[in-house]
Recover the amino acids of this structure.
C-alpha cells in the first residue's frame, strides 16, 4: 500500500478532530511560531503541514509573506 494511502486510511476518520488532538500534544507551538523572526517578503514552506493549523499561528504576518506552501501526503488532512 502506498504511503499516502496508508496515511489517508489512518487519519481520514479522525481528520476533523486532528487539530484538537495536536493542540493538546504540542504545547507551546503557537508561542514558538509567533516568536519566529520572520518578516514581510518571507517564503514559507511547511513540510508535513497537515491541516495548515500551524500557519495560522503566524497571524497577520501571513498576509505579508511572498509565498506560503504547505506540503503533506495525507489528503484528508489537506481537505480540512
Amino acid at each position: 500500500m502506498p504511503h499516502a494511502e496508508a496515511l489517508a486510511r489512518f487519519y481520514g476518520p479522525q481528520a476533523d478532530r486532528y487539530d484538537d488532538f495536536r493542540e493538546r500534544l504540542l504545547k507551546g507551538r503557537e508561542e514558538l511560531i509567533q516568536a519566529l523572526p520572520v518578516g514581510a517578503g518571507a517564503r514559507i514552506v511547511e513540510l508535513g503541514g497537515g491541516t495548515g493549523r500551524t500557519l495560522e499561528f503566524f497571524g497577520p504576518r501571513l498576509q505579508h509573506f511572498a509565498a506560503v506552501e504547505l506540503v503533506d501526503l495525507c489528503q484528508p488532512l489537506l481537505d480540512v
Remarks:
- The two ends are 23 Å apart (CA to CA).
- The chain is about 40% helix and 10% strand.
- The mean pLDDT is 94.
